[in-house]
Design goal:
The complex is a heterodimer of chains A (about 240) and B (about 220).
Chain A lengths: L3 E10 L2 E11 L4 E5 L6 H8 L7 E6 L2 E2 L4 H7 E4 L11 H11 L5 H12 L14 H13 L5 E5 L7 H16 L3 E5 L3 H7 L2 E6 L2 E7 L5 H7 L1 H6 L5
Parallel strand pairs in A: 3-8, 3-9, 6-7, 7-8
Antiparallel strand pairs in A: 1-2, 1-4, 4-5, 9-10
Chain B lengths: L1 H21 L2 H19 L4 H33 L2 H7 L4 H31 L6 H24 L6 H28 L4 H31 L1
Classes of the chains: A alpha/beta (about 240), B mainly alpha (about 220).
Chain lengths: ~240, ~220
């Protein structure tokens, strides 16, 4: 069984085709990064996997569940941190985490909150209103929320953007924990060196196609730049 | 069933918590409704005869117009933090998100009515504080929240949503307003329960239709 199996996924917004027959798969326990220039379709792909947007065609299985047919089951297996932290800014971090723990029907909520807050280093900010936190802490709180229900698959959209080195190290710890416990991470990033360092597999998307899918041990920065040079030449200054 | 109710309660309670901190919706709805009532009090020479004739219509028109203001604000909060998507990430059916948001809106409109209806009773000198009025008010608020939640979600990403929401909402709730006005007229005229009940039945029918149709359409709206 694949952790993720994406077959011929197509997505367009109005006249613009963002994803054209995207196809790839991940094994459970793999940490994979999606690389690509701005507008390549990375975030759209992640939004489709998080079930926030529907593809025009194609099929996606997550841990053997077709996402078109088993929405709630797939969402229970998935944790997502997308571009915006998606937190209620007039509620404290604890109140936000409690709300989402209730929506995920979790037990021992207080213990879970403390445990996950520790993982991302926000225990001292739990009772602060989200509005008063820096972007970095808000992102950490969003990561804590995504981890609360111990998802089998973690989707991270440019998780290191706006984070300081300490926050990045918390993120790396989470990635390591996932790898060692046989769970899966799919993340997008613009930082190629970081991607090659922490991921087992890289998927390069160019103009809505999977242009390269390979284990990171076989790759270096220049391979990847070559893989999306076509897009890079059209959208300069993206790396 | 119990788990579903817990989810609906969690979403509704969250809206209530945010409202206690911001006081945006209930204050806006109450003040708007009271302003409309005051304007009509000055515009019409209120006496015992025309108060009974015009009062119920003025009351429900003011609540409907004011309700639109509140519905707009309730969804604007979800848009600000992109939090509607956070709710969509949870492993719950879209129906429960709809029911939770509807429950929140129901609480806000009810809270506003608790302020507005007694003031209406004083201004128009009408005996509306009766149990029959409680039933009318409850059913009308359920209908307003059901259809209002749907249209507020539909217009959330529209640039002119403040204009679009009343344009969609008010024509659709007109039959419900009609039922509310007629049953309130019977209440103020001290009519018997069977006479009031004719209109209550209409309100119940609309509530059921609004909830079923809105819950179905809400899923489609959220998906893309």
């Amino acid at each position: 069984m694949f952790a993720i199996k994406v077959e011929d996924v197509v997505k367009s917004y109005a006249e613009v085709m963002v994803l054209r027959r995207i196809k790839f798969s991940l094994q459970p326990g793999e940490v994979a990064v999606i690389l690509g220039a701005n507008g390549a379709g990375k975030s759209t792909l992640l939004r489709i996997l998080a079930m926030l947007t529907q593809p025009d065609s194609g099929s996606i299985d997550i841990y053997g569940n077709d996402i078109a047919k088993n929405g709630p089951q797939v969402r229970a297996l998935t944790g997502s941190v997308l571009h915006s932290p998606m937190l209620y800014t007039d509620m404290s971090v604890r109140e936000n985490l409690t709300l989402f723990a209730e929506l995920y029907r979790l037990k021992n909520i207080d213990t879970l909150i403390e445990k996950n807050a520790c993982k991302v280093g926000i225990q001292s900010r739990l009772d602060h209103r989200v509005r008063t936190l820096s972007h970095g802490f808000q992102k950490r709180a969003a990561l804590a929320r995504a981890l609360m229900h111990k998802p089998q698959l973690l989707l991270l959209d440019e998780p290191e953007s706006g984070l300081d080195s300490r926050s990045v190290s918390y993120l790396e710890n989470v990635v390591e924990e996932y790898r060692s416990s046989g769970r899966t991470i799919l993340m997008t990033t613009h930082i190629i060196e970081h991607a090659l360092e922490i991921a087992d597999k890289a998927i390069v998307i160019t103009d809505g196609y999977v242009h390269l899918e390979s284990t990171t041990t076989c790759l270096n920065r220049s391979n990847i730049l070559t893989a999306y040079s076509h897009t890079f030449s059209k959208t300069s200054g993206d790396l | 069933m119990r788990e579903s109710l817990a989810v609906i309660w969690a979403i509704g309670r969250k809206d209530l918590l945010l409202e206690t901190r911001n006081k945006d919706v209930i204050v806006a709805v109450s003040v708007f409704a009271l302003l409309v009532l005051m304007i009509f009090t000055f515009a019409i020479d209120i006496n015992q005869v025309n108060a009974k004739l015009t009062g119920p219509g003025i009351l429900w028109a003011s609540i409907a117009f004011a309700g639109v203001t509140g519905l707009n604000r309730a969804f604007a909060l979800e848009l600000e933090g992109n939090t509607l998507e956070a709710l969509m990430l949870a492993p719950i059916s879209r129906d429960l998100i709809y029911a939770g948001k509807m429950f929140g809106n129901f609480l806000f409109i009810t809270a506003a009515q608790i302020i507005v209806i007694p003031i209406f009773a004083v201004l128009f000198n009408l005996a509306v504080l009766r149990w029959e009025m409680l039933v009318v008010s409850l059913l009308t608020t359920i209908g307003f929240s059901a259809i209002g939640t749907l249209f507020a979600a539909m217009t959330i990403r529209v640039r002119a949503r403040e204009v679009m929401l009343p344009l969609l909402f008010l024509p659709v709730v007109t039959p419900l307003i009609m039922a509310a006005v007629e049953s309130t007229s019977h209440v103020v005229n001290d009519s018997s329960w069977p006479e009031i009940y004719q209109w209550i039945q209409l309100a119940i029918a609309f509530d059921i239709a609004f909830i079923v149709i809105s819950a179905f359409i809400f899923q489609q709206i959220l998906e893309d």
